[in-house]
Protein: tRNA-specific adenosine deaminase
Amino acid sequence: MQTAPGPPDPVRDPWRPAMRLALDEAGRAVRGGDVPVGAVVLAPDGTTVLARGHNEREAGGDPTAHAEVLAVRRAAAELGEWRLAGCTLVVTLEPCTMCAGAIQQARVDRVVYGARDEKAGAAGSLWDLLRDRRLNHRPEVIEGVLAGECARLLTEFFRER
Structure:
């Protein structure tokens, strides 16, 4: 039995297409033997994809090769500028503290994420580094976009291990 879709959500619905791209990236992480987290960086127009990334820690033997960090690095290279002003990072899992630091340093304007990370999240669930008033840059945070699909991908991955 299929459930009826809920009412329109003007905050989250516009980000669903980009989250689907991030979910595709997360699938690439699984194929590489890594935790399924995927990310995309959107240009200031909110639709043009500047960069993509997925976890590559296992493939590269690099503990910092998280989807967010890789996507931010690639977007900066694409723009030829480390400041990602006006850009949006869309990621399947709430960023950790390391990724939150990279996001803050890159001056990303908005972070959109799917599933909450109750064990290591740094965008509201465990910590809230991204919105910490002591920092000089605080991006807008939108959580819960396709949260069920994002969480299910993680649950299935860890169930098999």
User: Anything to note?
Assistant: The chain has one domain: 13-160. The chain has a mean pLDDT of 95.
